[in-house]
Specification:
heterodimer, A: 84 residues, alpha+beta, Ubiquitin-like (UB roll), two-stranded antiparallel ribbon, 2 helices, 20% helix, B: 623 residues, Aldehyde Ferredoxin Oxidoreductase,  A, domain 1, Aldehyde Ferredoxin Oxidoreductase Protein, subunit A, domain 2, Aldehyde Ferredoxin Oxidoreductase Protein, subunit A, domain 3, 3 domains, six-stranded mixed beta sheet
């Protein structure tokens, strides 16, 4: 399946790009997808510091290794919001 | 009654400026048990000592400064203290917290709190040195800006390490939106600086060299090492970009209020977002007491009309002085932010009020003659000059610096353009982009505020449990976040680092027990609810009911014109649904008044004065 990732706001500075796209075998967990992204970009998405939206909806870090994706998707990586 | 063996000092200093009299008074362990510290303790004192009829600028108003059990303890970001007073900006209860070193030093001096009352006969500053209070004349520097006044106080006291809490020229000249600066940070909202100045009090300096008792110091040291590491590693974005990190993100989400909330996508975003700030303006980081994150981003303008200005703008200042005023020149934002700090103005109120004035000017409601200059959206120079006028309290700037309550009385036709609730200007989050934020603004205990009212963005966006454009569940969400924030503000810690110690909406861990000898952790959310309910009782006593919890028509009638939230509007019907859910969850009646039953459940019935119990709207849950 095809995964496209958008690095939102400061995530783009850490990833060195605003977006990337790659293929991963389906199904894959969010954690597995993020590991592929880490190899692509040299940017590890640490669950303590970063948040993920899958097709616009939040996936909490504790669900990253169980939440499975089986079709083309859009991931957004953004900072773990910590208060105003 | 619980026996606390650490964290607390057990006493407060009460300083009567009129009589130059200082009293040390004990604080009952029962009060700590019920209200924890900081914001909670201050609300308790306010409830008991500040009646509804007291004028905010009279000697009868008081300022309550309270630390929490963790303030000053060697843990991540234990920098916070709370101040509470009656606000001249809103005419209502005000709580405000600040970083810096003041809170820790107050505790090192042997006190959990400081209560200021009365009015000094001459301009004064207080110096609290290891528990001894000295009254000094501030006549020679009464009108000095905050930075210079701090330097002078350090020269007078001969102590570079002294922490100084100071009011600026805006306060001494009568600005109702004047803040208090504390070692470069601020207790920003609501006009506490004006209250200080009304007491002829320019500053309070404190230097303490004592120790805070700790119940299990060895275990705490080990815990602290790990918590410091966790805080540092979980907040790399805060270290690199600070709170400005949210600027680009919220704009992408269509939730970045611009041009006085006429839109939520800013066309000048590229030159005000954090990445641009880092590349062109950032000089270094700055950290508060015991903070491993150092989120303050010191920026300097190196060229152009604002060359030489230097300040550390937060997300809110960038939003209000930048996008809200249509200003895309980051140099102008740095300059305006520095002026706010030096004059001692709340940058959030100042920016939102200037944006309102810009809209009124463009609509022809304010003339060029009245304002004294052109004041159009996008004009950074005009924005900075207007801020200068506000800080100096001259011309039309002197009117704007009085805040929305004053402006509404003088220019009633402009009220629809005031983005406020209970006369407190909105923060830089768009309620039509995150509906929960609307309820936060409406039900915050100090008027429109995303912190006290509950910062719902994370939960609405990241947990997957909420649709940010839906109303269902938001009442419960806002209640939960408000209670979390109420106890966090009472512990004396910064919200950015709190998770490293287990302080979220399901508090866990044993750090509180290690410090105090009593494990209040399981009760923290209930304590938060007790504090929030007491704050509402205060507001009800001051005349607030449901009618005051609504948002301006712009939010409830005008759909957003563009961006990811295009077409969204938070109608009165939607808002009422959230408000009903919220009141029901809180055990308040349909008019927003806490019921007798809930007061009993929260062990507040014994605290509340009989006359206030009678204010209940029917006294039942039936509404």
């Amino acid at each position: 399946m095809q995964v496209s990732i958008t690095f939102l706001g400061p995530a783009a500075s850490f990833a060195g790009r605003t977006a990337t796209m790659f293929e991963v075998p389906a199904p894959a967990t969010v954690k597995e997808i993020l590991e592929v992204a880490a190899n692509e970009c040299g940017f590890r998405v640490d669950p303590a510091a970063w948040a993920v939206l899958l097709d616009g909806r939040g996936v909490p870090p504790e669900d990253w290794d169980t939440f499975t994706v089986d079709q083309d998707c859009q991931l957004t990586v953004l900072p773990m919001l910590a208060g105003g | 009654m619980m026996l606390f063996r650490g964290g607390y000092l057990g006493r407060a200093l009460r300083v009567n400026l009129t009589e130059e009299k200082v009293i040390t008074e004990e604080i009952s362990p029962r009060v700590y048990e019920q209200f924890l510290g900081g914001r909670g303790l201050a609300a308790f004192y306010y409830y008991n000592e500040i009646g509804a009829d007291i004028d905010p600028l009279s000697p009868e108003n008081k300022i309550f400064f309270f630390t929490g059990p963790l303030t000053g303890v060697k843990l991540p970001s234990t920098t916070k203290f709370n101040l509470t007073t009656k606000s001249p900006q809103t005419g209502l209860y005000l709580c405000s917290n600040s970083g810096g070193n003041f809170g820790p030093h107050l505790k090192f001096s042997g006190f959990d709190g400081l209560i200021i009352e009365g009015r000094a006969r001459r301009p004064t500053f207080l110096y609290i040195r290891d528990g001894q209070v000295e009254f000094h004349s501030a006549e020679a520097f009464w009108e000095e800006e905050t930075g210079r006044a701090t330097e002078i106080i350090k020269e007078i006291t001969g102590e570079k390490r002294v922490s100084v809490m100071v009011a600026g020229r805006a306060a001494t000249r009568g600005a109702d939106i004047a803040c208090i600066m504390v070692d470069g940070r601020s207790a920003g909202r609501g006009g506490a600086g004006r209250v200080m100045a009304s007491k002829n009090l320019k500053a309070v300096a404190v230097l303490g060299r004592g120790k805070i008792p700790l119940y299990r110091p060895q275990a705490l040291m080990e815990f602290s090492r790990e918590a410091m590491r966790k805080a540092r590693e979980s907040r790399p974005v805060h270290t690199r970009f600070g709170t400005p990190q949210y600027t680009g993100v919220l704009n992408e989400l269509g939730c970045y209020p611009s041009y006085n909330f006429r839109t939520a996508v800013f066309d000048g975003i590229d030159t005000i977002k954090a990445e641009y700030m880092e590349k062109h303006y950032k000089v270094k980081n700055k950290a508060c007491y015991s903070c491993p994150i150092g989120c303050a981003q010191i920026c300097e303008v190196k060229e152009g009309p604002f060359k030489g200005f230097r300040s550390d703008p937060e997300y809110e200042s960038i939003g209000t002085l930048g996008a809200q005023c249509g200003v895309a020149d980051f140099g102008a934002i740095i300059a305006a932010n520095q002026l706010c700090d030096e004059y001692g103005l709340d940058s959030m109120s100042a920016g939102t009020i200037i944006a309102y004035a810009m809209e009124c000017y463009e609509l022809g409601l304010f003339s060029r003659e009245l304002i004294g200059r052109e004041l159009r959206f996008g004009d950074g120079t005009a924005m900075v000059e207007m801020l200068r006028d506000m800080g100096e309290m001259r011309g039309f700037g002197a009117e704007l610096a009085r805040g929305f309550k004053y402006l509404a009385a003088k220019y009633p036709e402009t009220v629809p353009y005031m983005m406020q609730c209970k006369w407190m200007p909105f923060a830089a989050y768009e309620p039509r982009g995150f509906f929960g934020i609307g309820l936060s603004y409406g039900t915050s205990s100090r008027g429109a505020c995303h912190n006290v009212g509950g910062w719902t963005i994370r939960d609405e966006l990241l947990t997957g449990e909420y649709d940010r454009f839906a109303v269902k569940g938001k009442g419960l969400l806002v209640k939960r976040i408000q209670e979390t924030r109420a106890y966090v503000d009472s512990l004396g810690i910064c919200t950015v680092a709190r998770s490293s110690m287990g302080f979220n909406d399901q508090p866990r861990g044993s750090v509180l027990e290690m410090v105090t000898g009593v494990d209040l952790t399981p009760q923290l959310m209930e304590i938060g609810e007790r504090i929030y309910t007491l704050e509402r009782l205060i507001l009800v006593r001051e005349g607030i009911t449901r009618k005051d919890d609504y948002l301006p028509d712009r939010i409830m009638k005008e759909p957003l014109p563009e961006g990811p939230a295009k077409g969204k509007v938070l109608t009165k019907e939607m808002y009422d649904e959230m408000l009903d859910e919220y009141y029901a969850a809180r055990g308040w009646d349909k008019d927003g008044i806490p019921t007798r039953e809930r007061l009993h459940q929260l062990a507040l019935a014994s605290v509340v004065k009989p006359g206030d119990l009678n204010r209940e709207g029917g006294g039942t849950n039936e509404g």
